[in-house]
Amino acid sequence: MSTPDAATTTPSAPTRARAVPESTVGVPRRWGSIGPVGLVLAGGISVQFGGALAVSLMPRAGALGVVALRLLVAAVVLLVVCRPRLRGHSRTDWGTVVVFGVTMAAMNGLFYQSVARIPLGPAVTLEVLGPLALSVLSSRRAVNFVWAGLALAGVFLLSGGGFDSLDPLGVAFALGAGAMWAAYIIFSARTGRRFPQADGLALAMAVGAVLFLPLGIAESGTKLTDPVTIALGAAVAILSSVLPYTLELLALRRLPAPTFAILMSLEPAIAATAGFLILDQALSAVQALAIALVIAASMGAVRTQVGRGRAKAAAQHPHHDD
Predict the structure, then answer these.
(1) How far apart are CA 134 and CA 156, in angstroms?
(2) What's the whole-model pTM score?
């Protein structure tokens, strides 16, 4: 979880700040040929189609069972690839990585409980409000409140004035996942500063897996030992965790983090598309407009942060004409 990492470079940007491993040993060079923007979009598509696959897996393993499988497989893969060092870390280091793991587990658990009750597109739209709120609150510029108002207008449209068309509990879970996403961004950055490469991510993923496995077993029991369920759970882990980390790492080597953040703001639209194609979850025109408003608010907030950063840089390093 060191650079390049959206969490460490733009912690207040409304993005899913996935910690990406430094090492890409064995990654085919041909991935880089599709361009950095293509890599980011491919990562986003992978995540959301992984989410759609997870929804289709829930009748077999339950929401908690799917989360347990995803975290367990992702933890095993990352531990094998990163081989993090266990010695030489302070108590504060371990405290940070444990909180990061708890936050990661809570974010995944709440989100999967949400998509078990409401369509994928609206769920991701509500979830992205967490990072958006973090971006607005971390900036004192008045224009950010315009973006916040735009996002709230989108949420009001999505709710139909009272969330009558969406399961209120599913909405609450999505908003809770958004709050955990914001916390994830903060602790992702802190972990990245304390652990080399992706060691902190691998250890945090292991913490999340250990915490969630008993919950998954309690809900699903022997269903988790079914070979088909294990295979599908592994596919969810690869699509939603391992593959996006690799694609985003390759993209961030050639793409500015703010541009990356803006592209990640398209996730609600990708999620809605995945929900339609895989789960037959069609959106009404009003819901589509609501998602568009939240995406516009996210992009606007990121662009405002970028402009603010450039203004600070210009003030610190003024250009003098000879």
Answers:
(1) 20
(2) 0.72
